Every structure is written in structure tokens, then in C-alpha cells.
Amino acid sequence: MPAAVCLQNVHKVYNNVSVVDDLSLRIEPGEIFGLLGPNGAGKSTTIRMVTTLTKPTQGDIVVAGYDVLRQPFGVKKQIGVVLQQTSVDLDLTVWENMEFHARMHHIPNPRRQQEINRWLEYVELTERRNDLVKTLSGGMKRRLQIARALLHQPQILFLDEPTVGLDPQTRRRLWEIIKGLNQQGMTILLTTHYMEEVEYLCDRIGIMDSGKLIELGTLEELRQRRGAGLVMKQESERWDYKFFPTLEDARLYLEHQPDKTGMMVRPSNLEDIFVELTGRNLD
Ligand code: ADP
């Protein structure tokens, strides 16, 4: 089956600085793929290249069978994009935002009205359809952005930090929406700083640092590779982490320590692996 998104040896250089450095990545149809990395790693630039908003300096990117440089309009028809900054018009109503976007995509009536109703219902904004967007909460605005991105029936949805700044309940509601879309067959590529989001949603994970893809696989593959067991040791103000192939290995190690003060064993999680790989916490 052709890939949903395929990047081959992609580079992006800004002012002689390489911000995406020889990135090759294949995202399969039907996947939820999570792209992680510290600030400045090159995630947004990657999304911007894949969604035709900026051109790669070098390399090939094919999305839903269309080349981003030669067939950008083909790509645009197949993708929905929700970027970090709120792009909905605050002085229009919910319905007007949807109508405007659907007209931009030349969706004829009656399909236009059907699609608007369908997606407003899906994100539970039907009752707010006549309200000005500036009166909506942050979570509602994000839901509206997602509904709008789906109007032209894209195959692939790109979400750049979809739940940033939202409270935990609202975030969970968005996760259900994203999971539901994926169950309907949508391929999803998201960037996030929230490890639980990736653990809950993503089939596979890519970790970027300084423009390079430094890790790729399922959470279980990452844990197998880096160590599924962890011994933590408190050293005055900070914790030291030591990875072991299995939890059992970590337990055995602890058992053999003459002084176990300030030490504990637990299974490793994505955040442990992320910090181990990138050498710093997310900020
Ligand atoms: P991330 O999304 O992982 O935080 P970005 O892709 O936004 O990373 O940024 C990667 C690097 O590229 C950063 O150092 C950023 O300053 C730089 N950068 C991004 N966009 C531009 C631009 N339009 N012009 C110059 N530098 C840019």
C-alpha cells in the first residue's frame, strides 16, 4: 500500500542553519503518528513542509500520492491542517467560519450544508452554531478548528500541538474526537509536548532533536530498545535514572545494592525515554 506520508532525505535550511537534517520517514495509512521533540527540534517546520506551507531545501515529500513541490494542490485536497495558532475568525459565528471555509474549498450545496452539520455535530458545537467565535472557550475553538479542517473530507489530518493550553477534561474530550476520527479511517500526524497524549493516542512515535529523527517505533519498541525497567535514585535535589532491559532486571539490581536509601524501581515510560534521548525535559 502506498504511504500516507513519505519523506526521503528531507532538508530545510534557514539562514544557513539546517533546521531539518536528512529526515526520512514513512507514515502508513490509518496510523496515528506522534512527532515529539524539544522546542526548536524542527517538528513544526516538518509539518509545514509536508502541508505545502514551506518548501523543502532538498529531498522528496509525497503526501497521499502527491508530490508537495510538483502537485501542491493535490496534496491540499487530501489534507486537513490544524496549526498551533487559532486560525478561526473570531468576529464570525461558528457557522459562518464553517461556511466560509467550505466555500473556499468549492464544496457545493447541499453537500456543503450536510458536511457543516455533520462535523459541527461530531465536535458537539451544533448548539453554538450561531454564536460568535470570540465567545467560545479555548477547547471549543480548537474543536471548531478540527471540524473546519475536516469539511473537504481529507484523508490525512495534521494536528500541531492540538491540546496545548487546554484543561485536562477538555484535552481528554479532544483525544476521544481524534481517536474517533482515526477509527473512521483517518490517518493522523500530530505533534505534542504531552507524553500521556502520545501514550494514549499514537500507534507509532518519532522523536526529533536538532532537526534529526533520533528514535522511531511503537512505545513498546522504544521501551524494549531503551529498557523497560528503571531504577531511580535520589541524589540530593535530583533523580538519577538507570535503565534495565526488564523490570525484573531492575529489581535484581536494586536487591543487590547494599544501601537502598532513596532508590525505587518502576517500569519505564515515554517521558523517561524522551529525557534520556534528548538530555532535557520539555519546557
Ligand atoms: P519545533 O516545532 O520542534 O519547536 P521549529 O520547526 O518551529 O521547531 O523550529 C526549528 C528551528 O527552525 C528553530 O531553531 C527555529 O528558530 C527555526 N525556524 C523556524 N522557522 C523559521 C523561519 N521562518 N526562519 C528562520 N528560522 C526558522
What's the CATH C level of the largest domain? Alpha Beta
Low-confidence segments, given as residue ranges, are none
Secondary structure tally: strands: 13
Helix content: 25-40%
Task: Provide the list of bound ligands, each named once.
Answer: adenosine-5'-diphosphate
H/E series, N to C? EEEHEEHEHHHEHEHEEHEEHEH
- Summed up, the helix count is 10
Q: What global shape is seen?
A: globular
Q: Which percent range describes the beta-strand content?
A: 25-35%
Radius of gyration, in Å, reads 21 Å
Largest sheet data: 6 strands, mixed
Count of folded domains: 2
Structural class comes to: alpha/beta
Sequence of strands across the biggest β-sheet: 6-7-8-3-9-10
CATH evolutionary superfamily of the largest domain: P-loop containing nucleotide triphosphate hydrolases
Q: Let me know the average pLDDT.
A: 93
CATH-scheme architecture of the largest domain: 3-Layer(aba) Sandwich
Written overview of the protein:
There is one protein chain. The protein has 283 residues and is α/β, with parallel strands linked by helices. It has 2 domains: 28-55 and 72-221, Rossmann fold; 228-267, no CATH class. The chain has 10 helices and 13 strands. The protein has helices at 43-50, 72-78, 94-104, 111-122, 138-149, 168-183, 195-201, 219-226, 247-255, 270-278, and strands at 5-14, 17-27, 32-36, 58-63, 66-67, 79-82, 156-160, 187-191, 204-209, 212-217, 229-235, 238-244, 263-267. A 6-stranded mixed β-sheet has the order 6-7-8-3-9-10, sandwiched between helices. It has a 4-stranded antiparallel β-sheet with strand order 2-1-4-5, with helices on one face. Strands 12-11-13 form a 3-stranded antiparallel β-sheet, with helices on one face. Helix 3 (94-104) packs across helix 4. The protein is globular, with a radius of gyration of 21 Å. Adenosine-5'-diphosphate (ADP) binds next to helix 1.
